[in-house]
Amino acid sequence: xxxxxxxxxxxxxxxxxxxxxxxxxxxxxxxxxxxxxxxxxxxxxxxxxxxxxxxxxxxxxxxxxxxxxxxxxxxxxxxxxxxxxxxxxxxxxxxxxxxxxxxxxxxxxxxxxxxxxxxxxxxxxxxxxxxxxxxxxxxxxxxxxxxxxxxxxxxxxxxxxxxxxxxxxxxxxxxxxxxxxxxxxxxxxxxxxxxxxxxxxxxxxxxxxxxxxxxxxxxxxxxxxxxxxxxxxxxxxxxxxxxxxxxxxxxxxxxxxxxxxxxxxxxxxxxxxxxxxxxxxxxxxxxxxxxxxxxxxxxxxxxxxxxxxxxxxxxxxxxxxxxxxxxxxxxxxxxxxxxxxxxxxxxxxxxxxxxxxxxxxxxxxxxxxxxxxxxxxxxxxxxxxxxxxxxxxxxxxxxxxxxxxxxxxxxxxxxxxxxxxxxxxxxxxxxxxxxxxxxxxxxxxxxxxxxxxxxxxxxxxxxxxxxxxxxxxxxxxxxxxxxxxxxxxxxxxxxxxxxxxxxx
Length: 504
Ligand SMILES: Nc1ncnc2c1ncn2[C@@H]1O[C@H](COP(=O)(O)OP(=O)(O)OP(=O)(O)O)[C@@H](O)[C@H]1O
Ligand SMILES: O=P(O)(O)OC[C@H]1O[C@H](OP(=O)(O)OP(=O)(O)O)[C@H](O)[C@@H]1O
Ligand SMILES: O=C(O)c1cccnc1
Description:
Function: Catalyzes the first step in the biosynthesis of NAD from nicotinic acid, the ATP-dependent synthesis of beta-nicotinate D-ribonucleotide from nicotinate and 5-phospho-D-ribose 1-phosphate.
Strand content: 15-25%
CATH architecture of the domain at 232-300: Alpha-Beta Barrel
Keywords: Glycosyltransferase, Ligase, Phosphoprotein, Pyridine nucleotide biosynthesis, Transferase
Structural class: alpha/beta
Bound molecules: adenosine-5'-triphosphate, 1-O-pyrophosphono-5-O-phosphono-alpha-D-ribofuranose, nicotinic acid
Shape: globular
Helix content: 25-40%
Number of strands: 21
CATH topology of the domain at 232-300: TIM Barrel
Domain Nicotinate phosphoribosyltransferase N-terminal: 15-145
EC number: 6.3.4.21
Organism: Fluviispira multicolorata
């Protein structure tokens, strides 16, 4: 892929961040701590769509963003124009010069795209100068939140549709230009076989597919004339939309054209249904096509489909080989945002010692996890068993095999014995240099399939899925709890709350 952002936007995207990131950057610089080494993690707290998993994606676009992360003269000229309340410039010239000379120097570790992930697991770990890490909060969230959301939705749709294919048809109802393009890429990673979005095909190399619209049929004096014209124009791409006037009558007309195509040595591709009772119509259409000698002609269905409608149609015995899914998929209709956050979890003191940081909240789910985190996935030959979030500064003492739910410490479990394991976050940048070799989009999509196969079916099911065990390693949990008590309930520690030892 060429740079997606530069292809589409042709200018710097460094200012694609919330303004408060720049005011904080200025504040760090004024306070003399802009270069202080710090660690941030990007993670979400709840799987979307009541799903049992989330499919991680968007890393390549995050890399694309980071590769261009520098302030251009244009960006700086704009910053000089921004004024405060008393009409004085906000950013002094020396700070502008600091930004001009800034070059990306962070370490980035990330979970590869196409990996199944779970709440509280860091998808990205950014460490480096405080000011740089801070500025990156908004764009990284923007990219990863949307991408992972749509990939997860696509994985759900594809999992119920399988083994039939899913085409992504969403561009016309996507949220804007990037909403359409990013969604096409994310949907492909989630398992769609192709997109109707031709620019996404060009930029990302996703296969493009398409049928024709109602306007095509309506532009001719009769439906059959329109089918013949389409067949003559493009005899190798003949899926006829049959529902403009009457679906089953439309199928009969498609069969007439198929008979003609046969005389030309060509085969009709099939038909598309786009309204009415898709179960009934597909079953009847299948009978007509089979009877006419076209058992290979595919039936494509579209019309506001999502994973639940597809599951219901399959239960009803619908004879649909290809599903065209648009609006519900690319807008993540039932849950339009993932809600990942980006929090600082450690900072080096002026004497070079790592100090942990924690964000407190009345809601336990919103309390951040301190440390420099990694995710260890345990698995047996066929299935993923459990994920452990641990602090790498404490990894040599990783003896405990207990994980504890970050939201509810009464929920814990032991990692089964004799599992293999792998650490999910892999190096992507070292001192600002890209050290990750980017997989092809087709490889990412393949990874999705393999990853999903390794999740127990009860975790993949659409409704009320089983909870995959993913939690904090016991020492990290104890340490976090201790910090919470230290900040909030110092008196409880004095009374001897169980197991609060910190020896990190
Ligand atoms: N057999 C079925 N079972 C469950 N849902 C279905 C079935 N057939 C179609 N649907 C879905 O029901 C929703 C509404 O279908 P409906 O036929 O009302 O669509 P429509 O666009 O109003 O059709 P029409 O153009 O005929 O008015 C769509 O999401 C469609 O995919
Ligand atoms: O329903 P979705 O999942 O969003 O899938 C895309 C929809 O877009 C098209 O409809 P539209 O009425 O825009 O054009 P058409 O004339 O091609 O049907 C297509 O026929 C689908 O119904
Ligand atoms: O090719 C199609 O059939 C198509 C493309 C976009 C939206 N709806 C249908």
